[in-house]
Amino acid sequence: MAMKENFISMAPDEESSAKVNPIDNNKTLYADQFNAEAEPGNPELVQDIQNIGDAFAHFKPKVSVDFTDEEGSSVSEVLKFNEIRDFEADGGKGRLVQNSEFLSGVKANIDTNVKIRKSIEQNRKLREILGNEGSKEELKQMLQAMLAELENN
Description:
With 153 residues, this protein is mostly helical. The chain has helices spanning 52-59, 95-98, 101-122, 124-131, 133-152, and strands at 62-68, 74-80.
Protein backbone atom coordinates (compact mmCIF):
# COMPACT_ATOMS: atom_id res chain seq x y z
CA MET A 1 0.00 0.00 0.00
CA ALA A 2 1.50 3.34 -1.03
CA MET A 3 1.65 6.07 1.61
CA LYS A 4 -0.62 8.96 0.79
CA GLU A 5 0.11 12.63 1.44
CA ASN A 6 -2.11 12.65 4.54
CA PHE A 7 -0.96 9.39 6.09
CA ILE A 8 -2.95 10.02 9.30
CA SER A 9 -6.19 9.27 7.46
CA MET A 10 -4.83 5.87 6.47
CA ALA A 11 -3.93 4.80 10.02
CA PRO A 12 -6.28 1.99 11.13
CA ASP A 13 -7.78 1.83 14.60
CA GLU A 14 -6.57 -1.52 15.98
CA GLU A 15 -9.78 -2.31 17.88
CA SER A 16 -12.48 -1.41 15.37
CA SER A 17 -10.61 -1.43 12.04
CA ALA A 18 -11.96 2.09 11.52
CA LYS A 19 -9.78 4.77 10.00
CA VAL A 20 -8.73 7.89 11.84
CA ASN A 21 -10.35 10.97 10.35
CA PRO A 22 -7.94 13.52 8.94
CA ILE A 23 -7.65 16.89 10.61
CA ASP A 24 -9.54 19.56 8.68
CA ASN A 25 -7.38 22.06 6.82
CA ASN A 26 -8.77 24.92 8.94
CA LYS A 27 -7.80 23.18 12.23
CA THR A 28 -4.46 22.97 13.97
CA LEU A 29 -3.15 20.03 15.95
CA TYR A 30 -0.24 21.01 18.13
CA ALA A 31 1.65 18.24 19.85
CA ASP A 32 4.81 18.90 21.80
CA GLN A 33 6.49 17.99 25.04
CA PHE A 34 5.53 20.57 27.68
CA ASN A 35 6.67 18.53 30.63
CA ALA A 36 10.33 17.79 31.35
CA GLU A 37 9.31 14.54 33.05
CA ALA A 38 8.21 12.78 29.84
CA GLU A 39 10.34 9.86 28.73
CA PRO A 40 11.37 10.18 25.09
CA GLY A 41 10.48 7.18 22.95
CA ASN A 42 7.99 5.78 25.49
CA PRO A 43 4.73 7.71 25.02
CA GLU A 44 1.81 7.13 27.35
CA LEU A 45 -1.40 5.98 25.67
CA VAL A 46 -4.37 7.86 27.09
CA GLN A 47 -7.78 7.15 25.58
CA ASP A 48 -10.27 9.05 27.72
CA ILE A 49 -9.17 12.55 26.78
CA GLN A 50 -11.96 14.32 24.90
CA ASN A 51 -10.69 17.90 24.74
CA ILE A 52 -7.69 20.07 25.50
CA GLY A 53 -8.91 20.74 29.05
CA ASP A 54 -8.87 17.00 29.72
CA ALA A 55 -5.30 16.82 28.36
CA PHE A 56 -4.12 19.60 30.67
CA ALA A 57 -5.90 18.02 33.64
CA HIS A 58 -4.34 14.62 32.93
CA PHE A 59 -0.77 15.58 32.07
CA LYS A 60 -0.46 18.69 34.32
CA PRO A 61 2.32 20.26 32.22
CA LYS A 62 4.97 22.20 34.10
CA VAL A 63 8.55 23.23 33.56
CA SER A 64 11.32 24.37 35.86
CA VAL A 65 12.88 27.61 34.65
CA ASP A 66 15.96 29.49 35.84
CA PHE A 67 15.68 33.26 35.46
CA THR A 68 18.50 35.75 36.00
CA ASP A 69 17.65 38.77 38.14
CA GLU A 70 19.10 42.30 38.00
CA GLU A 71 22.08 41.36 40.19
CA GLY A 72 22.90 38.34 38.00
CA SER A 73 21.63 35.79 40.53
CA SER A 74 19.71 32.75 39.39
CA VAL A 75 16.05 32.53 40.38
CA SER A 76 14.38 29.13 39.94
CA GLU A 77 10.65 28.87 39.40
CA VAL A 78 8.27 26.13 38.30
CA LEU A 79 5.81 27.33 35.67
CA LYS A 80 2.54 25.38 35.56
CA PHE A 81 0.14 25.36 32.63
CA ASN A 82 -3.58 24.66 33.04
CA GLU A 83 -4.79 25.86 29.64
CA ILE A 84 -3.43 27.12 26.31
CA ARG A 85 -3.75 30.76 27.44
CA ASP A 86 -1.14 30.06 30.14
CA PHE A 87 1.51 30.05 27.37
CA GLU A 88 0.68 33.58 26.16
CA ALA A 89 3.13 36.36 27.00
CA ASP A 90 1.25 39.06 25.03
CA GLY A 91 3.76 41.83 25.71
CA GLY A 92 3.66 41.25 29.46
CA LYS A 93 -0.14 41.20 29.67
CA GLY A 94 -0.57 37.47 29.11
CA ARG A 95 -1.14 34.64 31.54
CA LEU A 96 2.50 33.47 31.36
CA VAL A 97 3.57 36.68 33.11
CA GLN A 98 0.61 36.70 35.51
CA ASN A 99 1.26 33.11 36.61
CA SER A 100 4.98 33.70 37.26
CA GLU A 101 6.04 35.47 40.44
CA PHE A 102 9.40 36.45 38.93
CA LEU A 103 7.99 37.72 35.62
CA SER A 104 5.22 39.60 37.45
CA GLY A 105 7.88 41.37 39.52
CA VAL A 106 9.90 42.28 36.44
CA LYS A 107 6.75 43.61 34.73
CA ALA A 108 5.87 45.68 37.83
CA ASN A 109 9.36 47.25 37.76
CA ILE A 110 9.04 48.01 34.06
CA ASP A 111 5.58 49.54 34.54
CA THR A 112 6.88 51.70 37.41
CA ASN A 113 9.80 52.94 35.32
CA VAL A 114 7.47 53.77 32.43
CA LYS A 115 5.20 55.78 34.77
CA ILE A 116 8.18 57.68 36.20
CA ARG A 117 9.50 58.44 32.72
CA LYS A 118 6.09 59.71 31.57
CA SER A 119 5.82 61.89 34.68
CA ILE A 120 9.23 63.39 34.00
CA GLU A 121 8.39 63.99 30.33
CA GLN A 122 5.12 65.72 31.26
CA ASN A 123 6.49 67.79 34.17
CA ARG A 124 8.36 70.83 32.81
CA LYS A 125 9.67 71.91 36.24
CA LEU A 126 11.08 68.46 36.97
CA ARG A 127 12.74 68.34 33.54
CA GLU A 128 14.43 71.68 34.30
CA ILE A 129 15.67 70.37 37.68
CA LEU A 130 17.06 67.23 36.07
CA GLY A 131 18.70 69.30 33.33
CA ASN A 132 20.70 71.36 35.85
CA GLU A 133 23.51 69.33 37.47
CA GLY A 134 23.38 71.20 40.80
CA SER A 135 19.60 70.94 41.11
CA LYS A 136 19.77 67.30 40.06
CA GLU A 137 22.23 66.52 42.88
CA GLU A 138 20.04 68.33 45.44
CA LEU A 139 16.99 66.35 44.30
CA LYS A 140 18.97 63.13 44.56
CA GLN A 141 20.07 63.91 48.13
CA MET A 142 16.53 64.85 49.12
CA LEU A 143 15.11 61.62 47.67
CA GLN A 144 17.80 59.55 49.42
CA ALA A 145 16.96 61.25 52.74
CA MET A 146 13.26 60.52 52.20
CA LEU A 147 14.03 56.90 51.36
CA ALA A 148 16.20 56.52 54.48
CA GLU A 149 13.39 57.98 56.60
CA LEU A 150 10.87 55.57 55.08
CA GLU A 151 13.15 52.59 55.67
CA ASN A 152 13.65 53.55 59.34
CA ASN A 153 9.89 53.72 60.02
